[in-house]
Amino acid sequence: MHTISASEIKQNSQRLQEALRGDILITKREKPFVVVMDYEKYIKINNSSDEWSFWSDNELDNFGKIAIGLSKNDFDDSDEDLFETGM
């Protein structure tokens, strides 16, 4: 049987009260480990991340190749002209 002292329960309830007032960051070996936050705030953050569109692995790979000139795609001056005219 696990024994818990009254002072430990009091400390835990104080931590829960702090969580209700604001976010808590729990660290492990001085590195972020767990974040305790209001559920509504979590939902808001989670929904806002859905609005971002991320590049696929293929797009990231191609971007890197374009940056160093190794892309298999044929980008020439006519592509730049289309981009400049907004077509």
UniProtKB/TrEMBL annotation:
<dbReference type="InterPro" id="IPR036165">
    <property type="entry name" value="YefM-like_sf"/>
</dbReference>
<protein>
    <recommendedName>
        <fullName>Antitoxin</fullName>
    </recommendedName>
</protein>
<dbReference type="Pfam" id="PF02604">
    <property type="entry name" value="PhdYeFM_antitox"/>
</dbReference>
<comment type="function">
    <text>Antitoxin component of a type II toxin-antitoxin (TA) system.</text>
</comment>
<comment type="similarity">
    <text>Belongs to the phD/YefM antitoxin family.</text>
</comment>
<dbReference type="InterPro" id="IPR006442">
    <property type="entry name" value="Antitoxin_Phd/YefM"/>
</dbReference>
